[in-house]
């Protein structure tokens, strides 16, 4: 069963709007562009992972990897070049998108696994008493 955490979804949508503004605007230039790519995809991937509450962490992981890492991390760079011709295509941007997204996903999975393990231990302690 899948449930959606609507507060996390709301934050994700706001972050996505901000990322879209930064990514598709031609008037903005940043000194540390690669760091911005890394941080944006780290944050978006982490938020996306926690939108869904599923029994299987594996399903959420595959969904997040497909949507954020592959479609978002790679597809956004091609879309950015199509939408705004003034933007120069840079393969290093894709690399930083992927690294940020994968790191966000790995940390989310580790946190979720730890959290579920702690809940399981707490449930066992309650049952033993």
Automatic annotation (TrEMBL):
Residues covered by the VanZ-like domain: 32-110
Keyword line: Membrane, Transmembrane, Transmembrane helix
Transmembrane segments: 7-29, 35-53, 60-82, 94-111
Keyword Zinc: no
Domain of life the protein comes from: Eukaryota
InterPro entries (alphabetical): VanZ-like
Protein name, entry field: VanZ domain-containing protein
